[in-house]
Design brief:
This protein is α+β, with helices and mostly antiparallel strands. It contains 7 helices and 8 strands.
Length: about 170
């Protein structure tokens, strides 16, 4: 990945090499994370399933126990997911477009699960909306990449900083 960073320069954006047969990043770190897709329908469990190659690489199981969404015309959207036995409330009476909130909140839940398992990598988000991406990095890797890239909308950000840049409401579990 560091070679890719140097190749694209500090004004560019983080990218990786792709396996053309599986459409998965060869380093199992970098994923597209379209905020609209994650927010709608089964986007949250679909994202977790898409990330399974990384979890396998880390030697960790991230298992969805249950997933439910409920819409109420007066109250809004309520979404819960159980991951490895822990219940996460992604939305409660949410009435806005959640294109930013959904990726940020599920990334937060996954990071909690990785931390519980002693994994030193976590999700950092890049850009947002239909152009969103996520990348698994150690803190050391993140510091290097963060210092290298200049555009805060094109470099990996911690979830709280990403939320501020993207004007997205945080949720702490």
């Amino acid at each position: 990945m560091l070679e890719m960073i140097r190749k694209y320069g500090s004004e560019g954006t983080l990218t990786t090499l792709w396996d053309e047969n599986t459409n998965v990043a060869k380093d199992y770190r970098f994923y597209f994370c379209d905020g609209e897709t994650v927010f709608e329908g089964d986007g949250i469990p679909d994202l977790i399933n898409d990330l399974q190659p990384s979890f396998e690489k880390f030697g960790v199981k991230i298992k969805i126990g249950s997933f439910s969404e409920e819409w109420d015309d007066e109250k809004g959207l309520s979404t819960q997911i159980k991951i490895n036995g822990t219940e996460y409330e992604i939305f409660k009476n949410f009435k806005k477009s959640g294109w930013g909130e959904a990726p940020m909140r599920i990334a937060h839940a996954i990071n909690k699960e990785l931390e519980k398992k002693g994994i030193n990598e976590k999700i950092y988000l890049i850009s947002g909306g239909n152009d969103g991406k996520l990348v698994f990095l150690t803190e050391e890797q993140h510091k290097y990449i963060y210092a290298f890239f200049k555009d805060s909308k094109e470099k990996p950000l911690g979830l709280n900083e990403w939320g501020k840049v993207m004007k997205t409401e945080p949720l702490n579990f």
